[in-house]
Write the structure tokens for this entry.
Amino acid sequence: MISNLITSVINFYVFLVFAYVIMSWFRPSGFLYDVYAMLATICEPYIGLFRRIVPSGGGIDFSPWVAILVLQWIVGPVLINLLAILGL
């Protein structure tokens, strides 16, 4: 039950990061800029952790993709296994 909730929250956050990356390719204006600014507030602190570590390759920022992979392949399974150990 809790593991499904954690998986859903992680998947939702991955969707937010993906939407933020897609919107960063364009110049949003009006309401879309407000959405973009909100996504930046939510996603940038997490992506910024990886931006300091992952070098940009030829002007392409791979840190969002590394952040998504870490979230789905490391953080999610570790949390789910920890909850299983705790019996939740």
Notes: The mean pLDDT is 90. DSSP finds three helices and no strands in the chain. The first helix runs from residue 2 to 24.
